[in-house]
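Progress note, sequence design subtask.
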């Protein structure tokens, strides 16, 4: 064979070898199920443990004194211990890595590995998750957790993997209250008021239905907006009202329990799938374990938050059952508006489940 033919044959063999190598690397990592069980066999094999180390950037929007940060520290401890040092967790509290939208987009791009953020922040990314923020949907926390930790809750978040995010677990914060510089007892009391809300269409629609003017403002800017009268009031659970000191610039807190603010632990799907199988399973197991211990932290903290708010001099009132019912009736247009958005069948099944489990 001539040198020219030999050289050509060598190039052909090299190309064939490289094609075989690329083909052998194909296939995604197995996706761990939400119950923390075994990964499905048909999802491809996760990479084997090569001794490589991994950094996990964990971002949330609460202060370092909150139960959320305590739970983040617990997550870090269990992950680093359980991985024998193969994983290092870096925690970024108080929106250090940007707004909620920026953090979610960071997961999609793979620049942030995990976030713990309000479920409402994901409504624009997966419409089904808007169900969780329906006004007056959950009568109490027992029913809420039966929904969120059951089959329905898994269905709420099953559209996220298609956009690069893996939903893992719902985390507790609490039922929301109103704050304002006047008492509020009926929907008509919101007429003409500017109310700060999250940038969440379903929450904004709720206040529009009650006659208010919803104004989406980033969480970090709410205190200044209230102080400078950019808005007249806002809604949040007791933790946020306390830790962000909204009660300092609002004379009234009205305990309405009109909606529950749940948080949502999620991960970059590309990152999670890239982990060795044992570390994927560790992330799932620790996430679900900490979600349960976090509930107790919130229960223990809430009484202290309310006492501190009252001790400051803020007037705290409660909606009566009759007043709550009037708000619930006034909220029905929100259900009609978002019925097809969240999925009529899914909403009907959720409402039926709640009614059966009251």
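Output:
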């Amino acid at each position: 064979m001539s040198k020219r033919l030999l050289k050509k044959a060598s190039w052909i063999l090299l190309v064939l070898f490289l094609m075989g190598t690329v083909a052998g690397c194909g296939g995604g990592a197995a996706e761990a199920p939400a119950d923390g069980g075994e990964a499905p066999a048909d999802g491809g094999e996760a990479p084997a443990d090569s001794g490589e180390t991994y950094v996990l950037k964990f971002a949330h929007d609460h202060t370092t004194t909150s139960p959320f940060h305590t739970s983040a520290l617990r997550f870090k401890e269990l992950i680093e211990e359980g991985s024998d040092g193969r994983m290092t967790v870096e925690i970024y509290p108080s929106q250090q890595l940007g707004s909620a939208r920026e953090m979610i987009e960071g997961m999609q791009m793979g620049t942030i590995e995990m976030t713990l953020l309000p479920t409402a922040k994901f409504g624009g990314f997966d419409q089904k998750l808007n169900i969780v923020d329906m006004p007056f949907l959950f009568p109490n926390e027992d029913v809420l957790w039966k929904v969120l930790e059951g089959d329905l809750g898994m269905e709420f978040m099953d559209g996220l993997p298609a956009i690069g995010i893996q939903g893992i677990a719902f985390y507790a914060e609490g039922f929301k209250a109103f704050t304002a510089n006047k008492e509020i007892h009926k929907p008509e009391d919101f007429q003409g008021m500017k109310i700060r809300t999250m940038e969440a269409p379903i929450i904004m629609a709720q206040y529009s239905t009650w006659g208010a003017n919803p104004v989406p403002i980033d969480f970090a800017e709410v205190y200044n907006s209230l102080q400078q009268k950019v808005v007249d009031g806002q809604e949040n659970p007791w933790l946020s009202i306390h830790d962000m000191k909204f009660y300092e610039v609002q004379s009234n807190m009205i305990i309405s329990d009109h909606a529950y603010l749940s948080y949502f632990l999620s991960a970059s799907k590309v990152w999670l799938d890239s982990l060795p199988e044992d570390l994927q399973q560790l992330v799932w197991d620790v996430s679900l374990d900490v979600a349960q211990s976090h509930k107790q932290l919130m229960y223990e903290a809430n009484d202290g938050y309310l006492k501190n708010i009252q001790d400051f001099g803020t007037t705290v009132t409660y909606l009566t059952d009759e007043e709550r019912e009037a708000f619930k009736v006034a909220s029905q247009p929100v259900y009609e508006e978002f019925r097809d958005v969240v999925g009529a069948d899914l909403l009907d099944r959720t409402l039926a489940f709640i009614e059966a489990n009251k």
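The first helix runs from residue 3 to 24. Work on this subtask will continue into the next period as scheduled.
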